């Protein structure tokens, strides 16, 4: 795991073709049980099979979804041993039979919400889901043979996560879950587009289609919420209200374009009452990024009746249902969920990457820490303690 330049052309790869078709021995962070420390150890990574791609991961970061999986919040996802991780960027090492849109040496981003390009969903302009490769947190093996591509040196299986498993020096993905980007794009920054930034900005641009002059309230100021703020600023929103119980997030929020902040702990009334008074009846759009149903209700009620729209971005693992009475929808407020910011990964993400390179969204603001891959447990703790937005790990 030596030092590598982010702008290097070969980024530490072997001579092209040297490892093609062979099992690769490399380091990976393996989790063996809920909340157990990740173990950096040697694993074997099999060659890609039909319509699969093996990539060398150069940068990866930790998202709250990784944290939830590590904690084991959903019992149905407790598959071990497993390699987590889904935000990353790297280089194509080799491709399997049938892959024609990528080749060895291409710069790529893994995505958890794939796009095959051929199914009825992919051909529809109304959704970014794919009939076969949409986000599936239960999936832990590859489709073609029902087996993982990871194993221990003695041949025992190690399972996949979110179709990506980026906490490894090498990983194998379905080609539908790999996006080729401009080779000039700085991979360290591009790694953020695998999940959080794309999810937040896309929810503003694609799902809500926020208009110039709009008022917006964002509940939960992690990376996704701050990305939503950056997206709203780029669209010309005039009021961007951040809501969070961690006052330290307000400093970063201001840099992202937020104009006002509300800490629910400082209020003696519900947040939605405060927002309605501040905005003459409520904001045009709210974005719920906390994964808390009580917060979701506050976000919903904070929109203006007649035209308000609430977009759900937070992951809600509990079995509780929506805290909204059906008749409340007759006041003209709407509520909708957004997966991966409604970006179609393979067809739309390359253009978004180009826009980020031009500075439409400042990706530098999201990288609060950088560590070597060997310190991945420290990176997890930074996220748990609320001290980091994204800690980028260099492999």
From TrEMBL:
<feature type="domain" description="Alcohol dehydrogenase-like N-terminal">
    <location>
        <begin position="50"/>
        <end position="182"/>
    </location>
</feature>
<keyword id="KW-0479">Metal-binding</keyword>
<dbReference type="InterPro" id="IPR013149">
    <property type="entry name" value="ADH-like_C"/>
</dbReference>
<protein>
    <recommendedName>
        <fullName>Alcohol dehydrogenase</fullName>
    </recommendedName>
</protein>
<dbReference type="InterPro" id="IPR013154">
    <property type="entry name" value="ADH-like_N"/>
</dbReference>
<dbReference type="InterPro" id="IPR002328">
    <property type="entry name" value="ADH_Zn_CS"/>
</dbReference>
<dbReference type="Pfam" id="PF00107">
    <property type="entry name" value="ADH_zinc_N"/>
</dbReference>
<feature type="domain" description="Alcohol dehydrogenase-like C-terminal">
    <location>
        <begin position="223"/>
        <end position="342"/>
    </location>
</feature>
<dbReference type="GO" id="GO:0005829">
    <property type="term" value="C:cytosol"/>
</dbReference>
<dbReference type="GO" id="GO:0046294">
    <property type="term" value="P:formaldehyde catabolic process"/>
</dbReference>
<dbReference type="GO" id="GO:0051903">
    <property type="term" value="F:S-(hydroxymethyl)glutathione dehydrogenase [NAD(P)+] activity"/>
</dbReference>
<dbReference type="Pfam" id="PF08240">
    <property type="entry name" value="ADH_N"/>
</dbReference>
<comment type="similarity">
    <text>Belongs to the zinc-containing alcohol dehydrogenase family. Class-III subfamily.</text>
</comment>
<dbReference type="InterPro" id="IPR036291">
    <property type="entry name" value="NAD(P)-bd_dom_sf"/>
</dbReference>
<dbReference type="GO" id="GO:0008270">
    <property type="term" value="F:zinc ion binding"/>
</dbReference>
<comment type="subunit">
    <text>Homodimer.</text>
</comment>
<keyword id="KW-0862">Zinc</keyword>
<dbReference type="InterPro" id="IPR011032">
    <property type="entry name" value="GroES-like_sf"/>
</dbReference>
<keyword id="KW-0560">Oxidoreductase</keyword>
<keyword id="KW-0520">NAD</keyword>
